[in-house]
Design goal:
single chain, mainly alpha, extended
Length: 412
């Protein structure tokens, strides 16, 4: 019967899709391609009107297979993408974008630019308005390639200027690329979103032509506009810009404070801690201790010698002056149950000693102050250092022994 035929047909399609999925998961690209061919062939016999799902599936799966298949070529990939563009106007711009990405990955810059220009001129009734955001992306990526061309011309111009020559035609061409890139890059960053690469390129353009006020405005908007999603990179770019402009430490600290709140494990926390430690304000020095303790809570920082050096230096200053031991105590109270095993085991002491003696020395000082002179980490490292007759480790041992009362106060 007709109903039974449709039921069996649907089951066979589902089975075919299951085989395709299995082949993809096992990276069996040839097998996946064979099943996809069967699936496409079966669709030609499908008289139902549900074409949206299958056509998108063919596009996505087919792209993945062609990208990884050992016998596929760029010519075949281009042909496939052109076919996919005709499957449905609703996905036309998305397919165009993906095609451009693959062209760029293969170094075909001119072809990618040509495809973006063709997509930009695409119009299809009401679909043009519906796909406005996709069109903005098309324009933005064309702006990115204009920036790339501008950057190439800039390098040529800089090379000529070093030789004492000036090339007016290169300068004019370069300025043309600047205008086209700036227009499209400015448009995309008006839309709330994560636009890191576009923002960086636009700021580079503006800075080169000395428009620092507009560059600052772009970065402030990107970092502080509440309509945009929280983005650590926005604050990194702002901080780097302020640093290039020689802004005050107050401005730099303000930018990094927000970054610390979002990502306490960011690599710039060492710069942040260093600035805070040098401050004359007690509140900022207190924050500096909090920042470096928070960074060392993360596994990626466990063997960061600079971070341990920052913590050791500040702990040493506090213990020597016998002021603000309560700062260390407050930070240590929430960590004393897990930091000893996380940072100060005998196993880590042995490994750190073998791999990086500077790191082990800084960690040993912190361990000795926080856990006392009987701490496993401190005992192992100081013993090895003294055994090797290294003056630095003898001084370390004397310092910790002399300030053992500080440990008693910190430990409560």
């Amino acid at each position: 019967s007709s109903h039974e035929h449709k039921l069996n047909f649907r089951k066979s399609k589902e089975a075919c899709l299951s085989y395709i999925q299995d082949a993809l998961l096992q990276k069996q690209w040839k097998r996946a391609a064979e099943f996809l061919a069967c699936y496409v062939e079966s669709l030609e016999k499908d008289y139902s009107r549900e074409h949206i799902g299958p056509s998108e599936m063919i596009w996505r799966v087919g792209t993945e297979i062609l990208w990884h298949h050992s016998q596929s070529s760029m010519k075949e990939f281009n042909c496939f993408m052109e076919q996919m563009k005709t499957l449905g106007v609703k996905r036309y711009l998305k397919v165009c974008l993906e095609h451009v990405f693959h062209l760029l990955c293969n170094g075909q810059i001119d072809e990618a630019y040509q495809n973006l220009s063709l997509a930009e001129s695409w119009r299809f009734g009401e679909q043009t308005a519906i796909q406005d955001k996709e069109m903005k992306l098309i324009e933005a990526y064309r702006g990115l390639l204009d920036y790339y061309s501008w950057s190439k011309q800039k390098n040529i111009l800089l090379e000529h200027s070093e030789d004492g020559f000036s090339d007016l035609s290169v300068e004019q061409e370069m300025h043309g690329y600047f205008r086209k890139a700036a227009v499209n890059l400015k448009e995309i960053i008006k839309i709330p979103g994560v636009w890191d690469v576009f923002v960086k390129c636009l700021v580079d353009l503006l800075e080169f032509y000395g428009d620092h006020d507009e560059a600052r405005q772009v970065l402030n908007e990107y970092a502080y506009n509440s309509k945009f999603p929280a983005n650590p990179n926005a604050h990194v770019y702002l901080y780097q810009f302020l640093k290039r402009q020689g802004e005050s430490k107050k401005s730099l600290i303000s930018a990094l404070k927000i970054l610390h709140d979002i990502v306490p494990s960011h690599e710039l926390m060492i710069d942040f801690n260093t600035m805070l430690q040098k401050s004359k304000k007690r509140k900022k020095r207190r924050l500096g201790l909090e920042v470096i303790f928070a960074a060392l809570d993360y596994a990626g920082w466990k063997e960061n010698a600079k971070a341990w050096s920052c913590l050791a230096r500040q702990v040493k200053q506090i213990v020597t002056s016998e002021k603000h031991l309560d700062w260390i105590k407050q930070e240590w109270n929430s960590r004393k149950d897990w930091w000893p095993a996380f940072h100060f085991s005998r196993y880590l002491a042995k490994r750190n000693w073998q791999e990086n003696k500077n790191l082990s020395c800084e960690k040993a000082l912190v361990a000795g102050i926080l856990l006392g002179k009987d701490c496993k980490y401190f005992k192992y490292v100081s013993h090895q250092g003294c055994k090797a007759q290294l003056k630095r480790f003898r001084m370390l041992k004397k310092f910790v022994n002399r300030h053992n009362p500080a440990y008693l106060r910190i430990s409560g």
